[in-house]
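S1.2 Input.
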Amino acid sequence: QVQLQESGPGLVKPSQTLSLTCTVSGASITTNSYYWSWIRQPPGKGLEWIGYVAYSGSTVYTPSLKSRTSISRDTSKNQFTLQLSSVTPEETAVYYCAGGVYWGQGTQVTVSS
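S1.3 Output.
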């Protein structure tokens, strides 16, 4: 069974960089046709897809966040990482990592001074 687990700071200051890691078990992140995504949900709002790193290592980001987003991977650790720079309080949300039909439980990130 594929399992994903998000980890990272729960509190980030405005203008700083948010960094989260997703650890995958039960499948290799290089498995053909898998796309490993980051998604977030602000309080009281819907889900927003941030971007993905593909099994091949290529990346795609949502246009509105592209200039501030980087998703990378560490195949030796079977992990992929989100970095979102210059965050604002409006980016307080539960952040999820996902691959295929599998999702992590989500991690709360608050942007506040």
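S1.4 Remarks. DSSP finds no helices and eleven strands in the chain.
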